[in-house]
Amino acid sequence: MSDIQKVAVVGASGNTGTAIVDALLKHGFEVTAITREGSTATFPPSVSLKRVDVSSKDGVLSAIRGQDAVVSCIAQAAVGGQDVILDAAVEAKVKRFLPSDYGIDYISARSTKVGKCLEGKVQTVDYLNKLTQQHTWFSWTGVATGMFFDWGLERGALGFDLKTRTATIIDSGNEAFSTTNLATIGQAVASILHHPEQTANRMVKISSFKTTQNEVLQLLQAESGEKWQVKNTTGQDVENIGDSLQQSGNPLCFVLYLQRYTFSDGGNTVWKDDENDNKLLELKQDEDIRETIRRVLGESSSRV
Fold first, then answer.
1. By CB neighbour count within 10 A (0-12 exposed, 13-18 middle, 19+ buried), where does 192 fall?
2. Which DSSP state fits 251?
3. What keywords would UniProt list here (predicted)?
């Protein structure tokens, strides 16, 4: 049985953080939500809320003393700055640290353009490994999820515009990819803390299901009852647009590089059976993708 009971979530008010806080509460953990100073985010009464300067080691340290684990959910733009949180966690004698790793397997992608956008995450893991060598009581776990499915579908990151009923299909549209819903990410984090030995000092890989752009398009049309407009493009064209955005300093280049990496023919972003940790973490092997799409369409239409 795990001796981890008190968990602090840094960046708890974001999309990933909210899902993780919800799951931790359902699993019976004592949760402390740490947000930036000036945040107006609210949480259930059972959550201890602390607003601090997350760029200050002393500020973070004061918020995480007495915690068994720290889960980082800081935004992508700040991922390279996790060392401050890590140093505070070590000084506070936190047993387990989960960096803000949620997304693609950036170790495998490190030589690609999207991987280069994630160099801060690689540097964080290098530092984590150094800390585990220095402190035998300290450990970490990363969580590779592939693209966020429900969140990405709603926001167009998967190539589908729910408002205009337009799909942008890259190459053949038949490249399979592993992808995960936000709630499942939260469940995985809670389960990791229930299985500390089996998940120590490594990246776990999870998914809600594997799919293709063409399958998603087919289900979107079936669930919406409408024929969608399809725009076909190539992975190289998507990458070229990303290059133009990068040259102008536009951070949206990351989304284009991510789409190129995930959806292009030959992408190979499906977890192999022996890599997938769903069974270890007691997650469903395959969630109902059609139900997820139905839910996202319903939520999207209710906000129009």
1. buried
2. T
3. NADP, Oxidoreductase
In which residue ranges of the chain is pLDDT below 50?
Answer: 1
Residue 9: phi and psi, rounded to 5, are -115, 115
**pLDDT 10s digits, 127-137:** 999 999 999 99
How far the first Cα of the chain sits from its last, in Å, is: 47
pTM metric for this prediction: 0.95
Domains in the chain: ranges and CATH: 6-144+182-206+272-283 (3.40.50.720)
Could you give the CA distance from residue 184 to residue 180 in angstroms, rounded to a whole number?
A: 7
Pull the structure tokens for residue 58: 């002393």
Write out the two tokens for 63: 């918020």
CA 8 to chain centre: 17
Cα(226)–Cα(161) distance, integer angstroms:
13
Helices (H), the chain: 15-26, 57-64, 83-91, 113-117, 119-134, 149-155, 182-194, 213-224, 235-247, 253-263, 289-302
pLDDT digits (tens, 9 = 90+) for 258-297: 999 999 999 889 999 889 999 999 999 899 999 999 999 9
